[in-house]
Amino acid sequence: MTMTASDPKAAGSRQTRMDPVAMAESLRPDTGESAFAAQQMLPRLIGHFHRLSGHLGGQVLTFMLTIAAALIASVPMIWISGSELWLTTTALFGGALGSGPAIAETLVQMIPLLIAGLAVAVAFHASLFNIGVEGQLLFGGLVAGIVGATVDLPPALLMVACLLAGMAGGALFALIPALLKAYRGAHEVVTTIMMNFVALAVSEYAVAPTGPFVAADQPSATERVPAGTQLPIIWEGTRLHAGLLVALGAVAIVLWVLYRTPLGFRMRLMGANHGAARASGVSIERMTIFALLASGALGGLAGAVQVLGVYGRFYSAFSPGYGFDAIAVALLGALSPIGVVASGFFFAVLHAGSVPLQAIAGISREMVGVVSGLVVAFVAAQPAMLRLLSSLRKPTIDDSLTESESEQQPAETSARMEMPS
Amino acid sequence: MSHLLTISLVISALHLALPILMPMLGGLISERSGVMNIGLEGMMLIGAFSAVLVTYFTGNPWLGLVGALISGVMSGSALALMTVTLRGDQVVASAAINLIGAGLTAALIPVIWDIDGLTPSVAKIPSVHVPFLSDLPTVGRIFRSLSLVDYACFALVFIVWWVLFRTDAGLRLRACGESAESADAAGIPVVRTRFFAVVMSGVFGALGGAYLSIVTLDMFQASMTQGRGFLALAAMVFGKWRVWPGAFACIAFGFADAIALRAQILWRDIPHELLIALPYVLALLALATFVGRASGPAGVGKPFTRA
Predict the structure, then answer these.
(1) How far apart are CA B99 and CA B291, in angstroms?
(2) Phi, psi at A315, each rounded to 5°
(3) Residue B234 forms contact with A (CB below 8 Å)
(4) Which one in A83, A144, A168, B187 has a CA-CA gap of 20 to 30 Å to B53?
(5) Is the separation of the CB atoms in A398 and A90 below 8 Å?
(6) pLDDT, tens digit, for every residue of B223-281?
């Protein structure tokens, strides 16, 4: 599937595709040494993903290659843990996909990973690395739990209020890094990480034994939300809840905003090249703030959905690091919302399978984190892997996937760029 | 306040500052050469874990320290391979180091010790008695609490400053960070220099981790670095990529940490969950107020390839 919006009047021609990277690269000689260049860390990788996005075959191939490389690289851990490859494989995939309830549980795991992965991807499109999704998710979950436990509204309204409050909470935790990035130039990686620790401290304080929101009957949790406020179960007899629909709705909205609205176009243009974006009248400051707030709101939504869908109350330890796995989810999905669904499912399999993996094969659940890290590492190496593959002249890889080719994009590309209406 | 500002506060501030100071130097070396390293946190965890692992099996914490430094060479080489050799994205590659470091060390504890979360205690590096200095009336307590590693760390601050800013080698390294093309044209081996700088940042990160696990404490705990690798980056930015201002920022973070710890004991009505966040809030405030627009080396983040 081609995720790039195309100009209907000249469909089929590669040059007319609305591609911020093509535009950005054609402008590069003028803007390469601009003051913004030093702040911009990710455009090359984003460029790599954009080039990938026109080729479904290339996308699927790199997705599979990356997963395969990460899984192969984790094999030594299986040996060190004293387990066998076959036993591990059956425990993992049997545990995650072996039966109806197992699949439902995998989908339950997919919901927060998918929404949080979208959160990371949205920021990445604007060349911002929001590594603070974990904190936004925690705080969003906390706010949703508090609103659910204290506000007096009809259940259905309260559910919506909780979700919106969670989004607001997540956005609030992204606001400080956003302002610092936009107006002080402070790198968002450092500031969002600091906010993670602040969110952890605040959420632990809120439900500490003497904290203001701790439940009477349960330590480290808020009071249960009233009956009917929880997201309804959509698969009888399992834990699968309507959060799945919320997540898929979020995918559709992000897809539409990113590729079908001027706002999304400006965001992606800024992600590809600050100088080009500024030259065409985009306010870098405002886009930075918008992208991080949107990302934070999605992070908060992931927390709120988990709180309302699975537990019905906020637990201070409800996230086993969804916000960090979300980085791998977004990158493996090549930042495309559809790709994020696929990679979210892959990580959900790992999460759901990690319980039987520990019980049957004796492999620590922390291995999910290692596989996430390996996936991220191989994504970082993807451009190099593709360069290598295409230098071997494998027919499966389109030449245009490689960097050297795309840097010679014709200059008229920018002239034919059209904004979506 | 008189109970707060004691000599033991200074001691604990020093011990809390050094595990931020070492990765700060690592990050500084790496960024000055043009490679952003946000993977210090993961490198610290791997270093802290290796130190305890080797100490546990040999019984000698000095060998543990060597093990940590070797692990730093390995994690630094892994990052250098991804960013310098393969020209992968520096932020993403170092995020991978963080994820792998946190996951791998937590996953290996049950494999090796059959328990979850934290290792048994091991021998730690002893503090040394310095003739005369340790016998001074008040200040002597500070010197009695220091080990050879502490003195080595203080020396390293000076050495890094001197090498980076007072030698030809340092000038070449910084040239790679400002403009790789110009450095290359001047005959400096950019790829080799950057590779070396990233490996060194791994070694410094691992040293900071080992300091936590076998100098301050005597065991390894999953995620024990608690964001110090990132505080180090904040200190580096706050010090505007210079050694001495960065070092002072680290010491300030050390004091914030120490005050938070002591305040828990002195004022029980302040929720200690919130006090723990003090250094992070301070780092955010520092980035917000004092720094002005941050301006790092011009070439950070740009992979280099010869045209």
Answers:
(1) 29
(2) -105, 140
(3) yes
(4) A83
(5) no
(6) 899 989 999 998 998 888 999 999 999 999 999 889 888 887 777 777 888 888 888 99
Phi, psi at B221, each rounded to 5°: -130, 140
- Determine contact, residues A332/A375, Cβ cutoff 8 Å: yes
How far apart, in whole angstroms, are the C-alpha atoms of residue B72 and residue B196?
12
Q: Which of residues 340-399 of A touch B (CB under 8 A)?
A: 363-364, 366-374, 376-377, 379-384
CB A347 within 8 A of CB A329: yes
Taking the CA atoms of residue B81, residue B84, residue B86 and residue B92 in that order, the dihedral angle to the nearest 10 degrees is 80
Nearest Cα neighbor of A324 from A137, A169, A168 is A137
| Whether the Cβ atoms of residue B69 and residue B125 lie closer than 8 Å to each other | no
Minimal Cα distance from B99: which residue of A?
A373
ipTM: 0.89
Q: Where are the domains of chain B?
A: 18-225
Measure the CA–CA gap between A296 and A120, rounded to whole angstroms. 9
Nearest CA in chain A to B112: A81
Contacts A190 to B, Cβ<8 Å: 38, 230, 233-234, 237, 283, 287
Neighbours of B4 (CB within 10 A): 13
Name beta bridge partners: A233.
Answer: A241
pTM for the full model?
0.86
Reported as a single tens digit per residue, the pLDDT across A268-282 is 999 888 888 999 889
Cβ within 8 Å, pair A377-B230: no
Rounded Cα distance between B161 and B183, Å, is 21
Q: Nearest Cα to A63, choosing from A362, A359, A332, A259?
A: A332
Residues B88, A383: C-beta atoms closer than 8 Å: yes
d(CA A225, CA A146): 9
